[in-house]
Amino acid sequence: MANRIREIRISRKMTQTELGNLVGVSQPYIHDLELGRRGARLETLQMIAKVLGVDIEELKNTDTVA
Q1: In 10 A of CB 15, how many CB atoms?
Q2: pLDDT at 63
Q3: Is the pTM of this model over 0.90?
Q4: What are φ and ψ of residue 44, in 5° steps?
Q5: Cβ neighbours of residue 38 closer than 8 Å, sequence gap 6 or more
Q6: 65 and 3 in contact (C-beta within 8 Å)?
Q7: How many CB atoms lie within 10 A of CB 29?
Q8: Measured between alpha carbons, how far is 39 from 44 in angstroms, rounded to an integer?
Q9: pLDDT tens-digit map of 2-56
Q10: Which residue, among 63, 61, 52, has the nearest Cα to 8 in the 3D structure?
Q11: CA 47/CA 59 separation, integer angstroms
């Protein structure tokens, strides 16, 4: 899922800082999340999905490209 968040974010031409600001978390948090160093609460994942314009299930899906 961590790599999927990064793929979708990049496809949306969004920086880690921009995503963090819109979600209400720091850029280092997004960085660690994308590297799999850190987990996220369900509420945070829901907000990331909303900001990226995808269903939360798409964050978990590693087979498709956004």
Answers
A1: 12
A2: 56
A3: no
A4: -70, -45
A5: 29, 32
A6: no
A7: 18
A8: 10
A9: 889 999 999 999 999 999 999 999 999 999 999 999 989 999 999 999 999 999 9
A10: 52
A11: 11
